[in-house]
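Moderator note: this is an archived Q&A kept for reference. The question asked for a predicted structure of one protein chain; the sequence and the answer are reproduced below.
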Amino acid sequence: MKGPSPAARAAELRRLLERANHAYYVLDKPEISDAEYDRAFRELQDLETQHPELRTPDSPTHRIGAEPADKFRKHRHLVPMLSLGNAFNETELAEWEERNGRLVPEVRKAGYTLEVKIDGAAVSLTYRDGVFTVGATRGNGIEGEDVTANLRTIDDIPLRLKGRGKTWPKLMEVRGEVYFSKSRFAELNREREKAGEPPFANPRNSAAGSLRQLDSKVTRSRRLRIFCWNSPASGDSRWSRTTSSSPIWDKRTSRSRASKQFSRRSTTGPTAWW
């Protein structure tokens, strides 16, 4: 009896690995052993090597990084990425509220929600039909650098959003902040000192520099995180928003699960969840 075609087998392996990742990282209920997972992952790698046209944008094999690039392409944002304003004293804060009140009068009575800002590197993620296709740095706010290959190595970023049919807009741009956790930054500097390399000065600049590596395997080794909070561009008004008090990613790996992913499965992470 003839077996499945390479395309059908690759699709089956992607589904199996996605389900295994979701069960392991999100549900914390592993369905297959590490050995079974590794065999399936390697089989998919081999199929994609033999048939490059079978490697889809949401393939789990993107998690391990791509071949080094010569340079970054430019990417124009669907909506400009504006910078945050600063207020250094009570007078400046009152002036800021006055400007808001002129634009949206009800804000004077509505009150405010305060959030601690995660200080990292701002990025824009573009999804088409629920699949992550382009990731870019802020750049000058209008145009940034295409760092898609590097962002695909961050386990927190879904390569495909959960849901079928019309669940997601055809085109959606998501904003977020790529950062180092304090514990990971301290660990990274210990690794660098042990290797005789100078320690990084601060997490913010280090996160930005890690995103701009021409070799995405270097980015992968840094183990960055992302906090997504805004979706300013979409073909569906239900998903367009200018502010948010909670992350768009509302299912993410916990600290305990995040530590597992590097001790048990160093090459891959969760393929997609929401």
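Archived answer notes: DSSP finds nine helices and six strands in the chain.
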